[in-house]
Structures are given as structure tokens and as C-alpha cells.
Amino acid sequence: MRSSLAVSLLVVAATSVGARPAFAASAPSVKTSFNIPAGQLDQVLVAIAKSVRGIVLFDPALAGSLKSAGVSGNITVKEALREAMQGTGLEAVANPDGSFGVQRAALKTTPPAPVAAETPPTPDPVPEPVPSVLPPIVISNSSDASLGYHDNGFMPRNTLSATRTDTPLADIPQAIQGVTTDLLESQQVQSVVDALRNVSAVTFARGDGVDQAATIYVRGFVAPIIKNGFADLVSLSNVTNGRAAGSLSITSLDIPMAAVERVEVLGGADSIVAGGPMEPGGAVNIVTKRPQANPIREATLELGNYGHRRAAVDMAGRLSSDRSWTYRTVVSATDDARTFDGYDGARELYLAPSVGYKHDGTTAVMGFSHQLSHSPFGGYQSAELTAQGPGPDQHTSPWGRPDDHSFSAKTELFYDLEQRLWQGWAFLSKAKYTKLRYNAAGYDNCAQSELGSTTGTCLLDQSSITSYSRNIENSVRGIFETGPLQHTLLFGMGYGQTRLGSYSDESSQGGVIVPWPPSELHLPPVTGQNDLIATDGTFYSTNFFLQDQLTWGRWHVLANVGYEQERNNFSSSVDSDGGVHDTSPPKNAPVYNLGVAYRFSESGTLYANAFRSFTPGNTILDATLNGGPPGIIVAPPTTGKSVEIGLKLNLLNNRAVFSAAIFRATHTNVLQAVNTPTTASTNGDYVLLPSTISRGLELNLVGRLMPGWNLTASYSYIAFQYAKPPDQDPQISQFPRHRASLWTTYDLQSEAWRGWGVGLGLTMRSGYTALPDTDMLGRIAGQTRTDASIYYKSRHWSTTLGVKNLFNRRLYSDFATSTVGVEAARTLLWTNTFEF
Fold first, then answer.
1. Is the distance from CB of 193 to CB of 204 less than 8 angstroms?
2. What whole-number distance in Å separates Cα of residue 569 and Cα of residue 583?
3. DSSP of 297-366, one letter per residue?
4. How far is CA 239 from CA 403, 557, 582, 644, in A?
């Protein structure tokens, strides 16, 4: 056991290991001047060892999840180590060869009093001698294990998302990219969409212009948004015909970054993980912060352009002396003075307390969050797409009144439970309840009639929505062996429902003709409540899954089968003869995943997989399909398939990871309208399109390349071929084929500049085409965005000055239709973090 654990030890020396210089342990009174800033504990221990040209040995799996307040002053090495590990539950032990080892601090207990005077007290047990070759090894016990991710640096090492079990990324036969807390903080990320710039295979369309309303595309296909393993159950665009209110109402993209631990992107057609319908490109999972025993007392103050102000507090620690009870509380508040186009600024308040318990085979997390958001109708830029490319900026002043806005109030309660049943088996349960209230009043999606015209068209949004969502998932996990095979078996069921308590919309049908440029438009009077939910409208989703992770020597197999069901209780329509018909989509489909990974060395893995997904079809009355006779058309589900082969390499003694993947994803049986109705008795002509195909390559490198130098870089090539609808130009791409991103930071290593560092980022893409109308193609040119930062980290505080779009270029979004989003101009952010 000891020899196998020794492989994971991190040995730090200023010179070669063969030299093995002694610490000042042989001369304990020798003092050294230390000035090591706060940071991850393993990095602080490395800095101590380098300062005295000595050796510290510790288990990186545990030390990497802890933070240190740093070391400062003219003190001995042992005092420096004790100060570095204060509050972590660890202690340093001197070895005979002059090195130091790190072990769990012994609990201080008072020996029991003797029963009688003549009875001598029981002597303390004699400790085992410390081996001279290896120091004590730190082992994480169940009561101290973290209840969430605590990544060290830019590189995630494990995930729960792909398998519902805690699995090393190297053993998962699937492309998974993660954006860690350290990377989020380093880049001063403002939203989940902003974080996804680090993943090259991701593009997005901003919807209303705000990130919370964005549609995310992975490998060219729309991606479901998952939060802590639960997918956003339904897009209200199904009910609202794609209006802005629907896209904003039920989403996890609006969560403030102060509450986010990690953002993950999973490649492939993985309906089993998504828990329901999805297209075959991939999924996005947002992981929120969880309770932990190691104390956190952190306050953040951020200032930026246009009066941007954000304050956040993050607190965590233990609630009991045995560390079995823990807590986490996140508070975030935003108050922006104005938008660049003259609207009143955004305001947001978020509160999320949670409590954790881990003891004797029981692990539980429970908590709630409450979020209030006031979002202006402005603050984003767009341009009309023409045959010559993007036109001038459309937003120069408020389209309506400066105080036009939407408001949402979201309350969420959740729990996550794991209960050990017997040896190797456990029961897992998690649930979430969400109540949302949303209303909006203002003009959106204004567009000039044509270049040079004095009129334009605006869409009006006067809507109100109340919804209630419930999700629960129960499963049983078993870990056992059958001969040479090791199994991690998981089987269970997930259930979700979203009930629309009310949905009203006074928005005008079509567009409102306005003078161009529009300014200070007054909303028309409300004529009455237009409730679009005649009866109780509820969406239901059920998924059954059986998963087995098999290990046989160097082989790792992930096999999943699932059965997905979708239904609602209000989809009915009347045909031309007055008959009432159920028009809900087809309700079920089987799905599967199969992946195989082979670890050809301790640092290298080859893998391949085949996944399947589905999206329900539609029922349409009085329509034709593929040229057939009019009638009731029941379209089959849209099915997705993906295959992928890839490589994962651990580099530089596990300080960096390189991954490569080649994929092919297809989407078939997409229902497409080919013309408008010609008679009152016909709702239109439809065709089922052949396969949409996405092929591509993804390359990623992330890690710490050398002391002080962290880097994450990615590149993707995506050849996205739409299924050609009748009379549509096949040249349309709508996505860039080449996309790359890079972010790197360097902590200055000289003593004179200790604590200072710089960051540099590039986001690049090739040009692409879109279809502004049926008569022409519009092209958006390739571009590069540059970000930069300078920062200082001290023992108890840090400050970062960042500049996004450093050269103030006019940049465009990675997705376009008749309009294309214009990215923000040069933006300055000053972020200050304090420990208290």
C-alpha cells in the first residue's frame, strides 16, 4: 500500500533529487526571510522548498484542494510550514535526512483520569517510527473529503458530469473540457457565456443581446444547459413562438459567476446525461460552489466601464469540531449605472446559502438560492447583415424609454444525498425545485427597413410568466468485481416537470412600424390580460438509465442505455373540420452510449465512442409532408448520432494535459416548412430533411508549463453541412470553421516583483457566411480579439486590472442570421478580492 501511494508523491527540490540537500532542520534556529503570497497550499509548499533549497514531500491529491494564507517574515523553516498550513488540519514532520513530510495533524485529547490512585495511567501509544526514505503520507478521510470540486489552477482532473460518478477525466472515453474557478477568476469572467470562450467548439447567438438569453451551440448544434446535473427542462419558446420572454424565462445561464465552481462542456449526443431531448453536438454543465470544511472568507469588489459595480462575498467552513457539518454562503450584487446606448443599467441580487454533512457513510448537501434581476432592453449592439457584410451599428439611443426593462425573481431549493447501503453499494438521490416570476415591457429586435430608410420595424414585448419546476433523480450505485473485471454499476430514474402557472402576452403580432432611428417610443396601452394558458399547462420528462463502467487492466469501458419520455398536457388543436386532436410530440425514444478507453501508458489514453440522442417531433393539422396529401401529420422524432475518437496525454509530470478528438455528428428527420399556407384549410407544406452533418477536430492544452506559467489553449475545425432545404443556397455555413482561444498568465519569479503577474488572451476565428434573405449571402470576416491583465496577489488580498478587446476592434459574434451581434468595445475591469 505504501509503495503504491509513493507514486503520487510530489517531490520539490531546488536541485536534483540525487543531491538531496538538507533543510535547516539540522539547525532549527536558522531563520530565512519569506514573502510568499496566499494561494493553493501545494504552490505555497513549493515556494517554501525553493526558498531554502530543500525538499517537502506531500500528497498532491489532498494538498491541491486546500488554500494557504501564505508566509511572511524572518522565521525558521518549520515555522514557515506551520504558518502555511494553519487552519488546514495538516502539520509538518521533520525526517532524519533533513527533508520534511506532511501529515494529518493529530487530534489533541485529554487522557482519562485514573480510576484509583494506585492504578497507574495508561501510557500513550508509542507512535510508529517515521521512515527515512518516505515521509508520512496524507490520506483524505471520509469526514474531510470535499463536497464539490476544488481544482488547482486551470486544469480539471475529474468530473461527475459524464458518468454521474466521480471519475478521472483520463478514464472517460469522451471529450470533456472544463473551465475552473482559477481560470474564471484569472479572466475576470462576467457570465457563463463569457466562460465558454475558452472552449473552441462552442459558439453562441445572443438572443436579446444579453448573455442570459443566448443560444449555445456545441459542434454546430444547439446544446442543452445543465446545472448540477439537471437540464433546463423546457424552453418556453415552444409556447411563446420564440419570443424574447420565452428565451429569458427558464435558463441557468443567468447564474452570477460568484456562485460558479466550474463550467464543463461534454461532446457528443448524450441524451442520457442531459436527461432528455438534445441535439448531437454536446451539452454544457454549470457546477455551483458547495460547502467545505476549509475556511473561506472572501469579499470581492469589481468596477468597470459605464458605472459597472459588483460586490460579492463567499464564506465557507465547518459547523462542527469533527468537520462533519460544513457550510457555504455566496452573496452577489450588481448595480450598473447605465448602458452605452442610454438605458438604465442592470441590477441583480443573488443569495445562496447551503449546508453539507459527511459522516459514517452519509453525504448530503442542501440549500437554496434566491435571485432578483432587473435587465434593461439595451446594452447590446447589432448590425444588419448585407451582401457587403455587416452594416452600421443599430443601437445609438434607447429604442423605447430608458427605463424599459425585464424583471425576474427566481427561487430554488435543492438537496443532494449519498447514503452507503452495504459494502460497495450506495443510494443516491438529488432534487431541485424552482419557482420563477418574469415580466417585461419594452421594445426589442428593432431593424431598419433597408439601408438608408427612414423607417424600421420593432417587436414589442409586454409579457408575464410564472412557472414552477420540479426535478428528482434516484439511483443505486454498486462497485464490485466479476473475475478480472471491475464494475461501477449505476441504475436509476429521473423525473422532471415544469408547470406554467400563468403566461400572458400583450405583445403585438408581427412588427410595429417606427421612425428610424427609433427613440423614446411609448408602449401602447394594455388592452387586457391575454392569458395563453387556457388550462394548467405542464411539461413532463422521464428518463430511465442503466450504466456500467468496466475496468480490465488498462481498458476502461463506459456503457449506457436509457429510455427517454417527453409529454405535455395541453397540446391540442382544432382541424379545418372542427375536430380536436392531440398535437403533443411523440413521447419516447431509446438512447445509448458506448465508449472504450485504453491507457497505453501511465500518461496516455486512446478512446472511441458512439452516442445517440433524440428530440421529439411535432403533430401538425391540415398540412402536407414530403408532397403527400393534406391531413394530420405526425413527424417522427429527430434523431442524433455521434462518433468520436480521441487521445488524452498527461504531460510534464501531470502538470499539463493535452487532448485531441475527431468527431462526426448527424441530425436527421428535421421537420422544415417549405412554403406558407395558400388556403384556409391548409396549414402549410413540410418536408423531413436528410441528415445535417458536422465533422471536425478539437485540440486542447491546459496546465502549468513551468513555475508561475499557467496556460489554456484550444483549437477546433468544424465543417458543418446543413441538410439542404428546397431552394436554399448550400453555401451557407452560419458558423466559422476555424476557431481558437488562448489564455496564459505568468507570476513574476524575481524577489523584487514577487506577487505581481500578467495575463494575455487571444480569441480567434475564421470568416463565415449567413443568409440575410433568400436572394443573397452575407459574409462576416475573420477576426482576433485580444485581452490582457496585470495583477498583484498578496497574503490577504489581490487586485486585477483587466482590459477586454484591448485594441478596441469592431468584432462580430460567431453566429448570424439577418443580423449579426457586435461584440463589446474596449472594456476595463478592476477586480479586488480581500480575505477577512
1. yes
2. 10
3. EEEEEEEEGGGEEEEEEEEEEESSTTS-EEEEEEEEEEE--B-TTSPBPPEEEEEEEEEEEEETTEEEEE
4. 27, 41, 15, 35
CA–CA separation, 518 vs 506, rounded Å? 21
Distance CA(205)–CA(193), nearest Å, equals 10
pLDDT level of residue 237 (50, 70, 90 thresholds): very low
The pTM of the full predicted model, rounded to 2 decimals, is 0.81
How many Å separate Cα 411 from the centre of its chain? 20
With a pLDDT cut of 90, the percent of the chain lying above it is: 43
List pLDDT tens digits, range 197-214: 999 899 887 655 556 667
Q: Would the pLDDT of 126 be above 60?
A: no
Do the bridges between strand 684-689 and strand 631-634 make them parallel or antiparallel, or are there none, so unpaired? unpaired
Average pLDDT over residues 42-50: 80
Are the C-beta atoms of residues 634 and 571 closer than 8 Å to each other?
no
Apex 595 CA angle, 594 and 596, nearest 5: 135
Identify the residue whose cell numbers are 468485481. 481
> Tell me: the pLDDT tens digits for 388-423?
889 888 888 888 888 888 899 999 999 999 999 988
Query: For residue 305, how many other CB atoms are within 10 A of its CB?
Result: 15
Q: How many helices (H) and strands (E) does the chain have?
A: 9, 53
Integer Cα distance of 540 and 616 in angstroms: 13
User: Does the structure show a pLDDT above 90 at 679?
Assistant: no
Beta strands 308-318; 296-304: pairing state:
antiparallel
Determine the Cα angle at 344 with ends 286 and 376, to 5°: 40
- The amino acid at residue 762 is L
> What's residue 140's pLDDT?
33
Burial of 812 from C-beta contacts in 10 A (0-12 / 13-18 / 19+): buried
Strand order in the sheet with 389-393: 389-393, 381-386, 819-822, 812-816
- Kindly state the percentage of the chain with pLDDT values over 70: 82
525 burial type by CB count under 10 A (0-12 exposed, 13-18 middle, 19+ buried): exposed
Tell me what the pLDDT averaged over the chain comes to. 82
The CA distances from residue 271 to 172, 203, 573, in Å, are 17, 20, 29
Phi, psi of 491 (to 5 degrees): -140, 145
Compare 84 and 288 and report the one with higher pLDDT. Answer: 288
Residue type, 590: P
Comparing C-alpha atoms, which of 575, 502, 573, 513 is closest to residue 538? 502
Cell numbers given for 592: 445509448
CA separation, residue 611 to residues 202, 279, 543, 559, 638 (Å): 19, 11, 16, 10, 14
- State the pLDDT at residue 24: 40
Q: Which residue has the higher pLDDT, 580 or 243?
A: 580
Contact 396, 341 (CB under 8 A): yes
User: Within 10 A of 4 (CB to CB), how many other CB atoms are there?
Assistant: 7
Give me the half-sphere count of Cα atoms (radius 13 Å) on the Cβ side of residue 672: 18
Q: Which amino acid is at 298?
A: E
Of 350, 253, 278, whose CA–CA distance to 310 is shortest? 350
- Separation of alpha carbons 717 and 697, rounded Å: 5
Contact present, 279 and 222 (Cβ < 8 Å): yes
